[in-house]
Amino acid sequence: MSQAGPPTGGRLRLVVAYDGTDFRGFAAQADQRTVEGTLLDALEKVLHSPREVLGLVCAGRTDAGVHAWGQVVSIQTLAAADPEHLRRALNGMLAPEIVVRCCDHAPAEFDARRSARWRRYQYTIVNRPEPDPFLARYSWWVPEQLDLSQLRLAADPFVGEHDFASFCRKGPEGTTTRRRVLESQWIDSDDDVLVYEIKATAFCWQMVRSVVGTIVEAGSGRISPGDIMPIIRANNRQAARRLAPPQGLCLMKVGY
């Protein structure tokens, strides 16, 4: 009777939160401090595996200065790893800038990006005459009074499947800017702290920040909510020129 071999590795799923202020985005870049690069450095030390073997994949590559509460990452391990031990070890090295909120086993075919069915982002605006020092890292300060009713009307046309070429930076040749938005709404909050939420099957580069910037134009009265659909249909990046700053944006949750 043959003996069983040593425990083998497998697929792990991590839910990661991070303050993106001091990172040059999620994706690893040479000579730049990024979330992925910092996470991989820690994973290599804890798991004693090179990053090429880990094959880290994330659900969404956030830009420089953008935060996450529910980023999802998948990795492959060569040897058996205890998810709770790994979570604690990583948090001991990375917290508080990066925190692994959850770590568990995943099916062999699980891929954080390709398996995702939707992503939800939130964007926070502080709408008062003076900035808030405690929210400055996580919000866009807009001192001019915004009309919440106009913001809500301007958010509605984004729901559905559209070509978002007016709201996205041009991607690699052959990529599409067509996306399906499932939700676009301003959620209840304090009168001077406004929170916008958008949920879609996928997003293109800088899409959410451009959508928010355009909606704020309507909330300030520079354009009307009726201008939103013509901007969408223009398929021209120059049609939606205002880009909201990165610090107000947070990847909240990914659905599978």
Give a summary of the structure in a few sentences:
The chain has 256 residues and is of the alpha+beta class.
Could you state the order of secondary-structure elements as H and E?
A: EHHEEHEEEHEEEHHE
What's the total helix number? 6
Average pLDDT rating:
94
Poorly predicted runs: 1-6
CATH H-level superfamily of the largest domain: Pseudouridine synthase I, catalytic domain, C-terminal subdomain
Describe the structure.
The protein is 22% helix and 27% strand. It is α+β, with helices and mostly antiparallel strands. The chain has two domains: 11-106, Alpha-Beta Plaits (2-Layer Sandwich); 118-255, Alpha-Beta Plaits (2-Layer Sandwich). Strands 1, 2, 3, 4, 5, 6, 7, 8, 9 and 10 form a ten-stranded mixed beta sheet that branches. The termini are far apart.
Structural topology:
Elements: E1 11-18, H1 35-47, H2 51-54, E2 57-58, E3 67-76, H3 83-94, E4 98-106, E5 118-126, E6 140-141, H4 148-155, E7 160-163, E8 178-187, E9 193-200, H5 207-219, H6 228-234, E10 249-255
Parallel strand pairs: 3-10, 5-6
Antiparallel strand pairs: 1-3, 1-4, 2-3, 5-9, 5-10, 7-8, 8-9
